[in-house]
Amino acid sequence: MTETTLVLVCKRPAYGSSKQRLSASLGQEGARRIAEALLACALEDVRDWPGPVVIAPAHPSDYAWAASLLPQLQPKIHIVPQTDGNLGQRLNAVDHNLRDRGIAHLIYIGSDAPVLAATDYSAARAALLKHDTVLKPAVDGGVVLMGSRLRWPMLDALPWSTSHLGSALAGCCRGAGQSLAMLTQSFDVDEEQDVFRLLTALKADHRPARRALYQLTCDIVSMGEPGDVQV
What pLDDT is stored for residue 226 in this prediction? Predict the structure, then answer.
């Protein structure tokens, strides 16, 4: 079977810049804590990945930070910082960098989809054996996973961070002549309502980072921070 590389596209959690759509209800510190817990979940998946891994931090200045995240997995992990531009431009730049190295099968994830599980990754790897591209849609209209065995078409003009992103991305890939597989829908954590979804989605998840995120979510909600709702 062709080896598949996992690419984690992430931003360094920081007070005042992490998960800003959550900060209105959680506060800046609450948003930062959620961002750190979400990143820990993504790193949990990186540790379990059976093949090579690339971490793509948001800024070249975060190279050392990214390299320090999972030192026990070196040299399995490679660091490829993102460049300037919108998300589409940055993904294209990372993708071109990796494909110029001869890497064919690439699966991209962000750091905000903690419901992703081993079955999802297995399904994505299997899909790339029969299709050029695989997408896992999100309930908000985005995607929580995107993979391809070909270079991505130009992604700069897509409506990133909108409810139309998923359909536009699928159309862009089909328009480039790529065969497409769609996995089952999931969700990522961007809005206050997504935090509440975690209470149900992670309740029976025993992976350590997911347990920690679940407990953090319970603590935040019980304190009444998100919309002052008690559970």
Answer: 39
CATH of the domain at 160: 3.90.550.10
Question: What is the model's pLDDT at position 192?
Answer: 84
Nearest Cα neighbor of 170 from 207, 132, 208, 201 is 132
Question: In the structure encoding, which two tokens stand for residue 178, read together?
Answer: 């790529």
Give the residues of the chain that fall short of pLDDT 70: 1, 16-18, 223-231
Tell me the pTM: 0.93
| Residue 124 domain-assigned (yes or no) | yes
223 in a domain, yes or no? Answer: no
Give how many domains the chain has, as a whole number.
1
DSSP for 18-87, please give it.
Answer: SSHHHHHHHHHHHHHHHHHHHHHHHHHHHHH-SS-EEEEESSGGGHHHHHTS-GGGTTSEEE----SS-H
Domain that holds residue 183: 4-188
